[in-house]
Specification:
InterPro entries: AAA+_ATPase, AAA_lid_3, ATPase_AAA_core, MT-severing_AAA_ATPase, P-loop_NTPase. The chain is an alpha/beta fold and 425 residues long. Helices cover 46% and strands 12% of the residues.
């Protein structure tokens, strides 16, 4: 524990002690289930605890304790084998990969999974073909084209000045920040690395900084145009405060060092995203001279997005669609997606109350009220319909209207005001 003893780490040490106490309680619980203890294996696990930052050890033990109690409750005939299986599972949690070594990266040619100091990241393919697949956000697309795509495709246009190769996307959750990063990578035909703050945090002291350094180094080694997308960047670089622990300070320092090095990397671009830009450390925030606000969709953008989400519904009743658009002010793109997803379930829910079906030409069963006539009627409950034979009616506009009563916007007005204040600073 010597590597944890720091005047600024008293909170971490308290959590560490609580975690060890939880482990002792777990050990007592194991014995109460009349299971034979495996002393050497338990001792080995306690040794591994010494290498953990307290708060992370706390999370590991809490999660594993829950799993253990569930397994023990299901297996009333506990045995030494059951205990050993559990202890091995706990050992895997405490040591998910080998201890940090001097190796920096390894790239698997088959899965394209990159191991950096014990953390794994994926070199992935963008989920969309380009910016054309994103509804609305016309001004945002123009800005991204000018700031990212043109410098990569037509660098001679920017020969008179230095091109910024880092960009911060911020805005409410569910507005498409991640999708935009994928679209930019697709437009640029770039290699695309996508990670979040939770991917890079390691349980071992000092390993997170090494993983961060190794990741940036790996991206710089790419020979072609490369985009590194860092989601939830606020998770590792929040504002500094007097009670901040040493681990957090070291991580911010390492991130700033890597951002400085990244500025001189040709054909490399860093895109970071956050829902809480006001929580970012001011020194980190200054590194992002280019910041783009991704707002909630306006009226026209909501209609465009709803059209994309309901391509199978003819827009024959424009009056009702206009009512839907008016009543979705304040909805994010994610909220609208949830609205349509729930509306598409309405016809399926109706099948639960269907007792009379009509057999169609392709031998499927549909609710009889959808057709006229009395031929080919089948009386049965949904549970009695043969596997794969039930069919629901198509979703209709009135289903969307009905779901407006229950699917409400998730972004409070106070938070929108907070974004506007940040933009105008």
């Amino acid at each position: 524990m010597d590597n944890l003893r720091s005047p600024n780490d008293s909170f971490e040490l308290d959590v560490y002690k609580n975690a060890i106490k939880r482990f002792e309680q777990l050990y007592t619980a194991v014995q109460s289930h009349h299971l034979k203890s495996n002393g050497p294996l338990v001792s080995n696990l306690i040794q591994q605890c010494n290498e953990y930052i307290g708060i992370l050890l706390n999370l590991q033990l809490k999660s594993t304790s829950h799993e253990a109690m569930t397994d023990f409750d299901q297996d009333i005939h506990g045995s030494l084998l059951t205990l050993e299986n559990y202890l091995c599972r706990l050992e895997n949690r405490l040591q998910p990969t080998s201890k940090p070594s001097s190796s920096i990266v390894h790239l698997s040619n088959t899965s394209k999974t990159i191991s950096v100091e014990g953390s794994k990241f994926v070199k992935t393919t963008p989920k969309v073909k380009g910016l054309c697949d994103i509804a609305g956000l016309v001004e945002v697309k123009r800005a991204l084209t000018t700031l990212v795509l043109l410098p990569l495709h037509q660098p001679q246009l920017y020969s008179g000045g230095k091109i910024s190769n880092s960009l911060l996307l911020f805005g409410p959750p569910g507005t498409g920040k991640t999708l935009i990063a994928h679209a930019i990578a697709a437009e640029a035909s770039a290699s695309f690395f996508s990670i979040s703050s939770s991917d890079i945090v390691s349980s071992y002291v000092g390993a997170t900084e090494k993983a961060l350094s190794g990741l940036f180094e790996r991206v710089r080694q790419e020979t072609n145009c490369t985009i590194l997308f860092f989601d939830e960047i606020d998770g590792i670089c929040q504002k500094r405060h007097s009670n901040e622990n040493e681990w957090s300070r070291r991580l911010k320092t390492e991130l700033m060092t890597q951002l400085s090095k990244f500025e001189d990397s040709p054909n490399k671009f860093l895109i970071c995203a956050t829902n809480c830009p006001w929580d970012l450390d001011s020194a980190i925030l200054r590194r992002f001279q280019t910041r783009i606000y991704i707002p909630l969709p306006n009226r026209h953008e909501r209609l465009e997005l709803l059209k994309l989400l309901t391509e199978d519904i003819p827009l024959e009743n424009l009056v009702l669609w206009d009512i839907v658009v008016e009543n979705t002010e304040g909805y994010s793109g994610s909220d609208l997606t949830d609205l349509i997803r729930n509306a598409k379930n309405c016809p399926i829910t109706e099948l639960l109350d269907t007792n009379i079906w009509q057999r169609t030409a392709d031998n499927t069963l549909v609710p009889a009220r959808l057709f006229g006539g009395m031929e080919n009627l089948v009386r049965c409950k949904l549970s009695e319909v043969p596997y794969g034979c039930a069919q629901a009616r198509p979703m209709e506009i009135h289903d969307v209207m009905e779901m407006l009563k229950t699917v409400r916007p998730t972004i409070p007005l106070e938070q929108i005001a907070k974004y506007n204040k940040f933009v105008n600073q």
